[in-house]
Each structure stands twice: as structure tokens, then as C-alpha cells.
Write a structure and sequence with these properties.
By secondary structure, this protein is of the alpha+beta class. The protein is about 25% helix and about 20% strand. The protein has twelve helices and 14 strands. A seven-stranded antiparallel beta sheet has the order 11-8-10-9-13-14-12. Strands 1-2-6-4-5 form a five-stranded antiparallel beta sheet.
Length: about 400
Amino acid sequence: MSNLRSIEVNIETNSAWVQSGAILGEVYHAIWEKSKVHGFPAGVCPTVAVGGHFSGGGYGNMMRKFGLSVDHIVDAQIVDANGDLLDRKSMGEGLFWAIRGGGGASFGIVISYKIELVEVPETVTVFQVESNPDEGLADFVYRWQFVAPTTSNDLFMRTTRLEQGSNGTASFQVSIQALYLGKADDVVSLLSKDFPELGLKRQDCTEMSWIESVLWYASLNYRSSPKVLLDRKVVRSPNDTNSAKRKSDFVVNPVSREGLGDILKRVAGQLQFSMAFSPHGGEMSEIPASSSPFPHRAGNLYKIEYVGNWNEAGEKAERAVMTQLRRMYSFMAPLVSKNPRRAYVNYRDLDIGKMSHGKGYRSYEEGKVYGMKYFHGNFDRLVKVKTEVDPANFFRDEQSIPTLPMKL
């Protein structure tokens, strides 16, 4: 799909046609070339491709203000199992609904999407603040989980755990990385009331344009030319890892101070493992769970991303990291969503269920195991669409949407 990377931006209609092989950095750059006050609510990793990102929902740092990427898709082109090229009108609203967050490669090959652009201010503010390792980290994160999902919709504050080497030793810290769609003085004033424990000061903040914030979030030099976003290898640095595993959870009730303390103790010292908390609330709570296949809307405080990376070749290194991840995931079970325990489809996780080859990737019961976790109440609707548009199950993989049994 990487050769299908055309992007056509039309500022007069606040829209763009984006082919699935384009990467997010190319999309952001194309918008910036046309307008300095338009953007798009998608992910912070510029080399992630549009097709995969959109097909799973399109999570990003402006979602509290504008929702997900899929909430701004107004048309699409897809090749179905019959080889026909369809647009929104010819594919029908059922299939159009399914491809906006129902996971990739279950319904056809999406060639391109038409997206609605959003207006962004001329000046935005970013900051990254680390907690004091000598003070109560559990108290710090406990307070964050009440503020981050309820504060101004213009503010997105992501929390991560950091291990930073200092004089040959590792210091355990929690970092908050934030984007505010406005000026620095305003966010300092806001958080002095909402989150005084953060201790945010004006000198912690940097004002910049929205496109510069894209570079900043990608750990690139925000003062450099946005053309760097066109380099598909831009984020491959010597510090990047060769192998990775991700798992996910959603938190619906605040975790206690004691629970957070136990989490932090378990994470401390595990240099190849970390966690990141991304807040919901804002517009995410206003959009109905049934509006797209992505169901994790109102009632979810934040998403947890479990991150495991390793460079060493061989099963030993992989097994060590995977063991850490799975043990932590098991420990977290009482603290996160239940019945079903939910997961984010773009962090594909075969641990939570998969199709068996012997059944031809067609078992509804097997698909329901992981499908309910990814899509909750939207799963059966996805199955119905799948059965209608691809009854022979041509498009399939270990975690694709299954077809209904023939008797149904």
C-alpha cells in the first residue's frame, strides 16, 4: 500500500482525500502547506500509515477536543471481495460504518479516505514535566486521573513512566507530556486551579504552531522545517528498538492510591517495560459508542498502553520482555474494565484470543472472544456487515471479524 500515498487538500471545503499508504507526517505536512490554522486529529507518530491508523479508530492528542480520526471521515474508496471499487454511496452506510474503526483487512482494501479538517489556533502550547522522584509518585498519578479526563477539552495530558540514567544509576520518574490548544499563560492559569500538584510554571511551557507541535511530540526538532515529516525513516534513531510488543486496557473507575503504588513498584526497575496513560473525557464522552466501531467513549477515564521493547535477537530476550508484560497485564485485571475487559484494536494483541487455522478463520465463537474486547457492543453489528459483504470470508487473519454461522 505504500505506493498509494496521494494527498489532495482543499481548504475551501475543509477536506482532503488521503490514500491509505500515506503516512501521518505526510498528511500533516500537506495540510500545513495549504493552511497554518488547520490540522487533523490523528496520531503522534508521523511514520504510522493512514490505512492502519484510521481502520482502528485513529487515536491522537487532539481527541479530547475533536474526537478520533474516524469521527472526521466523510467518504472512502474500497475494493471489496468481488474486486469492485466502491465509494460511500455505492458501498452503503453499513460498510462505511464498519471501515471507520472496525479493524483493518476484514472487509476489503481501503484505497483512500476523505477527511474533514479541523481548525487549530495559530498558537498552541506544549510542555513536559517530570515528577520529583523523592515525592509521592502514587499521589501524583492519583490526582492526574481525576484532572486529565475532566479539565478543559483543549488540554491533553499523557502520563508515562520514565527510567532516566543519572551517573550510571536509574531514577524512576513519571512524566506528563501535554498539548494545549491555546497560549501558555492560559494553560498555566488553568492548571494552577485544576492541578496545583503539577506545579506548572510559564518557563515549563513552549508556544509554537500546530505543525511544530507535531514535530515536538515526535521528538524531532520543532524549529526545523516540517519537510522532515516527509522522511519515512525520520523516527528511526539509534535509540529505537528492533522488536516491540504492546498490550492495552481501559480504566473506568479511578485506581486507588494503594493500587497505583503497587503498579509503580512493579514497573520500577524494568528497563524494557513501561506504561502510558492517555486521558479520555471531553469530546470522547459526547460521541455515542455506536457512532463508529470504536466503542471506548463515555465512561472511560483513560487508556493504558503497556510497552515492551527489546533489541537483542533470539527467543531469550523476547521471552523476558513478554513475561514482564503478561505478568503486569494479569496483575492489572482487578483495576481495569471488566465484562469484557476491553482493548484497543490498533494494539493488536494475540494474547486475548485468535482464530484457529483448522477452522478456516470462520468461527464466530472464537472471534467473539477478542471481538467483544475490541468492539464491545459493536461486535455483532460488525459481524452482520462482514457476513453481508464478504460471506466467503475472503479477507481474514488471526483477529479478523468472523462471519455468522450458516444456520444464522
